[in-house]
Specification:
The complex is a heterodimer of chains A (734) and B (366). Chain A is α+β, with helices and mostly antiparallel strands and 734 residues long. Chain A has 25 helices and 27 strands. The chains are: A alpha+beta (734), B mainly alpha (366).
């Protein structure tokens, strides 16, 4: 035996060997236990993860609806834009082939090949987002190859159709190079309708979740940012289709896992505006503004508004807000320099002044005072009111404040400078026709014993103003509407900490002081008078059609004005927008919406009584507006409309203001504040079918600046109507 | 007396298990191609390696293992030379220099260095079997080991250093290290590890950190591979999704599915049945090796078989544990299953050595 055999018993101690076996046994058992946990106990969860890995939802974009005017003229459409893209995985295998393709494509689209792909050049290329020129083709493809080789990378965006066609023809030679067709929004009427139609932009990060839940793809799908594009977003956008596909790790699609869902195109929208009238309105406004700015040799009138509406249906036929912006420049991306320029512009081109800005209405507000005074029996057609050039009235903050020299201030009529003695004794209708301030001071605030009931008073004035459409949003289908302001004693106490004074009532009676209104509200007040007390819901939507052109019933609900609802069924607080139906907001001669006050000595208490506005009251105010055209020489619209072939009626306004801009320019001098120019007119007087309001910021006298604009729009309206009838088309506005 | 070479003592069960594991591996590598053209030739190549490996087993089984022990000095020096030259000449691959390119083949001397260390230690414990188990005895064994291991550590290749140290530990354990010494060794290891951590390479630190504190949000980051492996294993269920039908494998969500994560690929396609077969096969091979160690004629034979058993067990268990996210990703392939010429060849050499020991075991006839 060898010596080895002697040592054998000592070589392995049994317990040490058993320990080794134990370690191995425990180790393998532990592994088996872990395996059991993963595969059997947690198996289902891991299976879900595995399915998740290869399941991918491809969103198929839906075509956005087209926006037309009432005659079917296109205001917003989708155009094809061509991008040259390269799918890294589809490039040929041979490196020299790839280089050849890069070179040839580079020659065609003028993007550099990019030299050798190095880490530095890739790092640099990472700094550029898609479509921004900079990196070479090789770098862009190399980056995409590492990220998603089966997803095309945009090499050049927005190439001409010719280049796109060339690339398509070469597709056999240029494996992996393709043309991607991207729809972009096009606005044929551009800045003419920009404030109404709006524009599109990317889904903001803060709303990504919300839109993702609706099937939108951020960074691809765009949403409306302004105008109808924004307010009708829900029906314009349509519904993206989707395919659930199986993908591999590189993102290559390997087939559908479920039957695909086709995209649903968005609805088309016909607006109520007539592009021809819109053009006239814009041209008239611009011409007038440019005339005066040239005349004064500086930018005097910085913004303006024209709105035309059919008072019988509420259809807005034209809505121009000056200055406007070019929404076609937002077609692909929102260029930051342009957006910055627009948002820093003090004249606010992005703001739709027609609904989104509040101004003192001035004398056009006298329609409310006149309606109230007549309806409350303060005046009748035979009352003669003395209208001197100037009233000395004392400012009382409490009923028993004594009148002394210190609290007495002059209230001047607009004719004072030309004719210090004023209009003298005039009738109620002449008060309206001449727009006598003194007359309306007296009607609104009373004047000793001359005026019955001590005048209308602010509480009752507010009731009548609201009945004509002031102090509330109109519920028009556009975001950003302002509600204006009709003050009340409570409002003043809360907001200024002062009691309501008698002077406040006087100046509110002529639409000054705290009173603010949007141009649309002024239009509505005129429309209520013109339409014999029936206030129609102003609307910009004529009808909604689906992809095949069938008219789709739609209801619009402004809700809280933050998020509108557009639904195919009526909801609480909604009104029908398609097919077109005139919606009556209220008829003041039928619905008792005037809350009764019992007034004595200029102080009024609310009663439980509610009342209507008598048709006679509306008729009286209507006559007054007609007399503004017919009365010579003091009728405010006499010069403009006296020779007009169709009977026009209306009201002008010259509203003093002192806003931040005026204050900065040191123009707020006492007694000589700058003035906005207003004019409101409707025609024909007997059966009005068009009402137009024009506004010029810092325009000066209403009759000389805004009135000619209104006159030109009304003139154009009837000319267009004659043309339509002659050509056998549906006449404008019908 | 003369011991005649007896093929009757050749462990055919061990060989059978090795063939089974390798064949299963080749089949799985074929499935793991999953349309990747670079992997297209791998199953064929692996088949050649298996066939050559089997020849190597028989060749080595025929040569008395003591022959290798007698030329331990040249082997030791040559291996050291290879390892040293790797620091300058080896090809930089995966951030570490672990390869020699010979023609189209990549040679990984580290794999063979582990065998050399097993042989060296086997010879050392044979020689020192009558010496007291004192610190000098322990220090000498460490010195032999670290003469080669230091170069592996410098590559840096921490996982193979750990494998080697585990082999060394099993050997000193079986050779009767005193429990008192063992205790102090443990204390030293814990303190040493704490001190050494800051000196690890960044990527190694990152692996340890990722393992200890996985970042929930980093599904495409550093833990991507492990996460995908877990999905593959878990979704396999009891019976798997079928050969060639594992979504994680076929749609290539799993990376290195033909090497480090082949166990996950098997688990998804063959389910728990296939996975248990893998574990049982590895366990069976280890058991046959330990059985050979018990029956070996001398200490050196015993140590060779034990070393190989430890190597296979530890490397296999580490790979499985890594697949199932029990330990950090280490880059240790699954013995016999994973793709890799050098790895497979070195394992075949190991099995050949064990067979050589088995064929020359202590005679049962006495």
């Amino acid at each position: 035996m060898s010596s080895g055999s002697v040592s054998r018993p000592a070589r392995f101690e049994a317990w040490r060997l058993n320990a080794v076996y134990a370690v191995i046994f425990l180790g393998l058992t532990g592994l088996l236990f872990r395996l059991l946990t993963l595969q059997v106990l947690q198996g289902e969860n891991w299976k879900i993860s595995a399915v998740d890995n290869y399941t991918f939802e491809v969103s198929v974009p839906a075509a956005r609806g087209i926006i037309y005017d009432r005659n079917g003229y296109i205001l917003a459409r989708n155009l094809a834009s061509y991008n040259i893209v390269i799918t890294p995985a589809n490039l040929p295998d041979d490196e020299s082939d790839i280089q050849r393709i890069y070179r040839e494509v580079s020659d065609l689209i003028d993007v550099p090949v990019g030299g050798p792909v190095t880490d530095e050049s890739l790092e640099e290329a990472k700094l550029f987002s898609a479509c921004i020129p900079g990196p070479g083709i090789a770098q862009m493809v190399a980056l995409q190859d590492t990220l998603a080789p089966y997803t095309p990378v945009k090499i050049k965006c927005n190439v001409t159709e010719e280049i796109a066609r060339t690339v398509q023809e070469k597709s056999a030679d240029w494996m992996g190079v393709e043309v991607e067709v991207e729809p972009i929004r096009d606005y044929p009427t551009g800045s003419l309708t920009a404030n109404l139609v709006g524009f599109l932009g990317p889904i903001p990060a803060s709303q990504e979740e919300e839109y993702r839940a609706l099937g939108f793809i951020p960074n691809r799908d765009k949403i409306g940012y302004a105008g109808v594009e924004s307010s009708m977003q829900d029906i314009l956008a349509g519904k993206n289709g989707s395919r659930i596909v199986k993908i591999d790790v590189a993102g290559q699609e390997l087939g559908n896992l479920q039957p695909p869902r086709a995209p649903e195109a968005g609805h088309n929208i016909y607006l109520t505006i007539d592009t021809r009238l819109q053009m006239v309105a814009e041209a008239s406004l611009k011409e007038e503004i440019e005339f005066w700015n040239t005349y004064f040799g500086k930018i005097r009138i910085s913004s303006g508004v024209v709105i035309a509406m059919n008072p019988k249906t509420g259809e807005i036929l034209a809505m121009v807000s000056y200055p406007s912006y070019e929404n076609n420049r937002f077609a692909r991306i929102i260029p930051s320099y342009y957006l910055q320029q627009l948002s820093q512009d003090p004249t606010k081109p992005l703001l739709n002044n027609a609904i989104g800005a509040e101004f003192p209405p001035g004398s056009v507000f006298k329609l409310s005072t006149a309606t109230g005074a007549f309806n409350e029996g303060i005046v009748d057609l035979s009352t003669i009111i003395d209208a001197p050039g100037k009233l000395e009235l004392c400012e009382k903050f409490n009923p028993n404040d004594p009148c002394t020299g210190t609290n007495t201030r002059p209230f001047v009529d607009h004719i004072y400078e030309k004719k210090p003695e004023g209009f003298g004794p005039i009738s109620f209708l002449q008060c309206i026709a001449y727009s006598s301030n003194v007359c309306f001071y007296k009607l609104g605030g009373g004047y000793f014993d001359q005026i019955a009931q001590g005048g209308l008073g602010i509480e009752r004035l507010k009731q009548y103003a609201e009945a004509l459409g002031y102090n509330k949003r109109s519920n028009i289908e556009l975001y950003g509407e302002q509600d204006g302001l009709i003050p009340s004693p409570d409002w003043k106490r809360i907001n200024t900490g002062e009691n309501w004074s008698t002077g406040d009532t006087y100046i509110a009676s002529v639409g000054q002081g705290y009173v603010l209104a949007t141009p649309l509200q002024i239009l509505m007040s005129g429309a209520t008078i013109a339409n014999n007390g029936k206030l129609m819901q102003p609307t910009v939507i004529h009808q909604v059609t689906d992809g095949e052109g069938n008219v789709v019933p739609m209801w619009f609900n402004p809700n809280d004005y933050i998020k509108f609802d557009v639904t195919e069924f009526p909801t609480d607080g909604s009104y029908q927008i398609s097919p077109f139906t005139p919606n009556l907001k209220w008829d003041v001669t039928v619905t008792p919406i005037i809350k009764g006050y019992s007034c004595d000595g200029g102080y009024c208490d609310l009663t439980d009584e509610t009342k209507i506005i008598q048709p006679e009251s509306i008729a009286a105010v209507r006559s007054g507006t007609r007399m503004a055209v017919t009365e010579t020489p003091f009728g405010t619209l006499y010069k403009i409309f006296n020779n007009f072939p169709i009977a026009v009626a209306g009201k002008t306004g010259t509203a003093e203001y002192c806003d931040d801009v005026a204050r900065a320019a040191e123009r707020c001098n006492f007694g000589a504040w700058p003035t906005h120019s207003w004019t409101l007119s409707y025609a024909p007087y007997d059966d009005p079918e068009i009402i137009v309001v024009a506004f010029a910021y810092n325009g000066g006298e209403g009759a000389s600046v805004a009135a000619p604009i209104v006159q030109r729009v009304i003139e154009a309206y009837f000319e267009l109507k004659a043309i339509d009838i002659a050509q056998g088309r549906t006449p404008i506005g019908q | 007396m003369l011991r005649s070479l007896s093929w009757r003592s050749f462990d055919f069960l061990l060989l059978g298990a090795v063939v089974l594991a390798s064949a299963f591996g080749v089949a799985m590598i074929r499935s793991a191609i999953a349309g990747n053209e670079e992997l297209l030739l791998y199953p064929t190549r692996q088949t050649y390696f298996v066939l050559v490996g089997l020849v190597v087993i028989f060749l080595l089984a025929g040569i008395d293992y003591r022959y290798w022990l007698s030329i331990h000095w040249p082997i030791y020096i040559v291996m050291m030379g290879f390892l040293i030259s790797l620091s300058g000449l080896g090809q930089a691959a995966f951030g570490a220099q672990r390869w020699f390119q010979v023609g189209v083949l990549f040679l990984q001397p580290t794999e063979f260095a582990k065998i050399v260390i097993i042989l060296i230690l086997a010879r050392y414990f044979e020689k020192s079997q009558f010496e007291p188990r004192d610190l000098k005895w322990l220090a000498k064994s460490l010195a032999w080991t670290w003469g080669l291991l230091i170069w592996i550590l410098l590559q840096p290749n921490l996982s193979n250093v750990i494998v080697t140290m585990v082999i060394w530990f099993f050997m000193v354990w079986m050779n009767g290290i005193e429990l008192k010494t063992l205790f102090w060794m443990g204390v030293t290891a814990v303190i040493g590890g704490t001190i050494a951590f800051p000196f690890l390479e960044d990527y190694q630190k990152q692996r340890v950190i990722n393992f200890l504190f996985p970042d929930e949000n980093a599904s495409y980051g550093a833990i991507y591979n492990v996460q995908q492996a877990l999905i593959a294993i878990g979704s396999g269920g009891l019976f798997g999704e079928g050969y060639g039908h594992g979504t994680q494998v076929q749609l290539r969500f799993m990376k290195v599915r033909h090497t480090d994560f082949i166990f996950s690929a098997i688990s998804q396609e063959f389910g728990m049945v296939g996975a248990v077969l893998v574990i049982v096969t590895i366990g069976f091979i280890v058991w046959r090796c330990i059985r050979t160690a018990q029956k070996a004629r001398d200490v050196s034979g015993s140590m060779i078989a034990l070393g190989v058993a430890t190597l296979l067990f530890f490397q296999g268990a580490a790979n499985l544990a890594m697949n199932m996210n029990l330990i950090p990703v280490s880059g240790l392939p699954l013995p016999f299953f994973s793709y890799g010429g050098s790895g497979l060849m070195s394992l075949m050499v190991c099995v050949g050595l064990v067979e050589s020991v088995a064929m020359r075991h202590k005679s049962m006839e006495f």
